[in-house]
Design goal:
Blueprint: H1 3-17, E1 30-31, E2 51-56, E3 63-67, E4 73-77, E5 83-87, E6 93-97, E7 105-113, E8 116-119, E9 123-126, E10 132-135, E11 142-145, E12 151-157, E13 163-168, E14 174-179, E15 182-189, E16 195-199, E17 208-215, E18 218-225, E19 237-242, E20 245-251, E21 257-263
Antiparallel strand pairs: 1-5, 2-3, 3-6, 4-5, 4-7, 7-8, 7-9, 9-10, 10-11, 12-13, 12-21, 13-16, 14-15, 14-17, 17-18, 19-20, 20-21
Length: 264
């Protein structure tokens, strides 16, 4: 049994305690963080979690924008304890200036409406090259901004060999996966936007591999390396350049270590 199967539950539980459940400052401010000290009552109605959908250049660095509940207070929190806040407009649209940075950054996203705090799925990874990536514990990364029109974009794995291959294909395409020439017990389909994340049915051994994702009139390939990494020495994330692309080793809400290889 792989951690990728186990962390699907950890991802749900971690959403309650992850980055972003933080007390706030005024709009556009950056300040110290303090955790909520009591659990919220069970909500009577469902609120869709906030999401980030675009990363655009700004006068003083990139600007992250997305959707939330109308009028909600939106929070971005870093592992180092900084919080940036804004308020969604009447249509639920929001944007926050992140400031310039030459290194990759990771943010937890949440919103508060009334007495309720709702955590977004995963973490927002902002790269200096303008890419915006949704990191998901126990699942595949989604390149939100800066993705290719068609291809394999990410390979996620952990030290136990659990792995997911992700990318972009024709919408609703039925897909299968081969690793090192062998068909694996993995199949699935792209969503209506063409995004796919296909978990491997068996552990992927450490080391380099060739992966192919195939479908009708589709044959995508990528070289990856599933060698496990040690936890980051400082903070919750470590990003290093590899021959295959940018490798990001990061701590999940449940305390595990997941590696995301963003393929060139």
């Amino acid at each position: 049994m792989t951690r990728f199967k186990q962390t699907l539950l950890a991802r749900t539980l971690g959403a309650v305690i992850g980055l972003g459940l933080l007390s706030g400052c005024g709009e556009g401010q950056v300040g110290a963080v303090s955790p909520l000290n009591r659990e919220a009552e069970a909500p009577s109605t469902y609120l869709a979690p906030p999401s980030a959908s675009a990363l655009r250049p700004g006068a003083e660095g990139p600007v992250l924008s997305g959707a939330a509940a109308a009028g909600a207070r939106v929070r971005l929190a870093t592992p180092e304890g900084e919080v940036r806040m804004t308020q969604a407009n009447g249509d639920g649209a929001w944007s926050i200036a992140l400031g310039a940075s030459a290194v990759p950054r990771i943010f937890g996203l949440s919103m508060q409406t009334g007495e309720r705090t709702v955590q977004a799925e995963g973490y927002q990874l902002v790269l200096p090259d303008g890419r915006l990536v949704l990191l998901r514990a126990g699942a595949g990364a989604v390149v939100v901004e800066g993705a290719v029109d068609e291809g394999i974009t990410a390979f996620d794995f952990d030290e136990e060999g659990g792995a997911v291959i992700s990318g972009v294909a024709p919408p609703d395409a039925i897909l299968s996966v081969r690793i090192d020439g062998r068909t694996v017990s993995t199949s699935g389909r792209a969503d209506a936007a063409g995004h796919f994340s296909l978990p491997f049915g068996a552990p992927v051994p450490p080391g380099p591999h060739q992966i192919r994702v195939q479908g009708e009139s589709l044959d995508l390939s990528a070289e990856v390396d599933a060698t496990p990494a040690a936890p980051p020495e400082e903070g919750a994330i470590r990003a290093t350049r590899s021959p295959y692309g940018l490798r990001v080793d990061w701590l999940t809400p449940g305390g595990g270590l997941q590696s995301t290889l963003l393929l060139d």
